């Protein structure tokens, strides 16, 4: 299983459907941000890999999907793991093209469907799935659809995607209730840094805790990768300045934006400050890189 | 009658002796076969681990070449390697999770010789070695060289 996850996570954009014995694979993420998967009482730690998965994957097949996460340079591959027996229900109005795009980009092998909020009770049928995840776009999750009421509270989870934020809900009785406090935001149960790769992470994650655990692992990885790019930028700037006149013209265009980004990441990790500003620090790096490309200078990334 | 009984007893003892001899030979043989099987399986695990480490090293964004965020396979950026060699020692616990007890070097062979350490955390003992050819990019000169990644994994 470890070799399967390693191999699946190396090439981004790849989808693998792996036949397995009829076993249950448990995915967890503990308080020290070490995630692990367990089969039959045996556990394997995943200290570095970011794997978004339900807490239980069972069946005769598992689906793995790898996407590259960049900020703006490639940081790592995210691995999404699920089972064809888990159902993902997208709840959005027919005019919501974003919701349709997110659903269509998911692997075909994953069980997905889309319906309008007022169609949940009439169109959603019980298909004996052991887990259902509702993804609401703009609408607030309120009542559990009729056909899902008989399932246990652990079997039903929901998220709401709106304005670049994702909010997590859990089933309590016949209603959806907000989950707990978020690490990144002061508002209840809202997590930021929403691009498509992290949105899919929210869709595949079991709950807010698992999602944020993986986001913190991503941040740690981002910290190290950014340190490397920051040092590289500093070296390029200083060495090009003392190179021949043609190359020396490039030196002023390295404006240390990556260094500033790296310092903010460290503040976010160590003291929890500036985390919500991180996404806004990416466009300046992209602009600098574009400028360097136009001037035929060595790129930042 | 007495001698008949004695003969029977000796027969029984002989049969028991032969039985226990065969049992002993069986246990010794089985033990040796198991030892060989375990040794082979251990070797397979070590090789698999070495392949995993070498794959991780080749595809690691920390050292892989990229141009406008498009990664280039089988290419190592030498400035990234130098930056990583400066930071991994302060974060050995983190990179140990990726590379374990191993040593990963970049050896440039053409046009000039050169060597850089990506990661070094070996332990004494035998190791499994894998070498993968790569191109080595020098961003300041904007030139490429040839070389290989040398991965030595303890096992």
Can you characterise this structure?
The complex is a heterodimer of chains A (301) and B (155). With 301 residues, chain A is an alpha/beta fold. Chain A is 32% helix and 30% strand. Chain A has 8 helices and 13 strands. In chain A, a hairpin with a 3-residue loop joins strand 5 and strand 6. In chain A, helix 5 packs antiparallel against helix 7. The two termini of chain A are 33 Å apart. Chain B contains 3 helices and 6 strands; from the N terminus they run αββααββββ. Chain B is rod-shaped, with a radius of gyration of 29 Å. Chain B starts with a helix and ends with a strand. The interface between A and B is medium-sized, with 31 and 28 residues.
List the helices and strands and how they pair.
The complex is a heterodimer of chains A (301) and B (155).
Chain A: H1 2-8, E1 15-29, E2 35-39, E3 42-46, E4 50-52, E5 56-70, E6 74-82, E7 86-91, H2 97-105, E8 111-115, H3 120-123, E9 131-137, E10 156-162, E11 165-172, E12 175-178, E13 190-191, H4 196-204, H5 208-241, H6 245-248, H7 257-271, H8 282-294
Parallel strand pairs in A: 4-6, 7-8, 7-9, 9-10
Antiparallel strand pairs in A: 1-2, 1-5, 2-3, 5-6, 10-11, 11-12, 11-13
Helix pairs in contact in A: 5-7
Chain B: H1 2-59, E1 64-67, E2 70-77, H2 78-87, H3 92-99, E3 102-110, E4 114-120, E5 127-138, E6 143-154
Parallel strand pairs in B: 2-5
Antiparallel strand pairs in B: 1-2, 3-4, 3-6, 5-6
Tag the structure with descriptive keywords.
A: 301 residues, alpha/beta, 7-stranded mixed β-sheet, 6-stranded mixed β-sheet, 13 strands, elongated, B: 155 residues, 3 helices, rod-shaped
């Amino acid at each position: 299983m470890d070799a399967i996850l390693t191999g699946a996570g190396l090439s981004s954009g790849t989808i693998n459907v792996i036949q397995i014995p009829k076993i249950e694979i448990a995915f967890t993420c503990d308080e020290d941000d070490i995630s692990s998967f367990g089969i039959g009482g045996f556990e394997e730690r995943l200290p570095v890999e970011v794997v978004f998965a339900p807490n239980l994957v069972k069946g005769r097949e598992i689906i793995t999907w790898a996407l590259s996460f960049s900020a703006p340079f490639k940081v790592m591959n995210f691995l999404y793991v699920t089972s064809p027996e888990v159902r993902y229900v997208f709840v959005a109005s027919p005019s919501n093209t974003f919701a349709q795009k997110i659903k269509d980009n998911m692997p075909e092998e994953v069980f997905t469907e889309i319906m309008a909020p007022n169609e949940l009770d009439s169109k959603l049928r019980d298909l004996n799935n052991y887990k259902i995840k509702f993804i609401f776009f703009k609408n607030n999750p309120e009542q559990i659809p009729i056909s899902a009421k008989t399932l246990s509270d652990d079997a039903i989870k929901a998220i709401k995607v709106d304005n670049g934020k994702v909010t997590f809900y859990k089933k309590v009785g016949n209603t959806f209730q907000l989950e707990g406090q978020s690490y990144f935001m002061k508002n209840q149960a809202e997590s930021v840094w929403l691009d498509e790769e992290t949105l899919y992470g929210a869709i595949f994650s079991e709950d807010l805790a698992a999602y944020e655990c993986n986001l913190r692992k991503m941040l740690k990885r981002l910290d190290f990768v950014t340190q490397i790019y920051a040092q590289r930028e500093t070296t390029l700037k200083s060495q090009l300045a003392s190179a021949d006149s043609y190359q020396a013209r490039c030196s002023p265009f390295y404006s240390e934006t990556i260094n500033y980004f790296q310092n903010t990441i460290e503040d976010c990790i160590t003291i929890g400050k500036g985390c919500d500003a991180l996404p806004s620090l990416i466009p300046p790096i992209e602009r600098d890189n574009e400028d360097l490309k136009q001037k035929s200078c060595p790129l930042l990334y | 009658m007495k001698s008949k009984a004695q003969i029977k007893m000796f027969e029984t003892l002989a049969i028991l002796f032969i039985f226990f001899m065969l049992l002993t030979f069986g246990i010794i043989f089985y033990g040796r076969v198991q030892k060989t099987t375990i040794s082979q399986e251990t070797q397979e695990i070590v090789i698999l681990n070495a392949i995993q480490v070498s794959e991780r090293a080749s595809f690691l964004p920390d050292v892989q070449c990229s141009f406008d965020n498009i990664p280039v396979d089988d290419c190592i950026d030498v400035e990234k390697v130098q930056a990583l060699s400066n930071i991994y020692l302060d974060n050995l616990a983190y990179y140990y999770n990726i590379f374990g007890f191993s040593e990963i070097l970049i050896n440039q062979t053409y046009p000039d010789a050169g060597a850089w350490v990506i990661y070094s955390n070996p332990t004494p003992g035998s190791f499994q070695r894998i070498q993968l050819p790569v191109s080595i990019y020098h961003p300041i000169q904007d030139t490429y060289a040839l070389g290989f990644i040398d991965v030595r994994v303890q096992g």
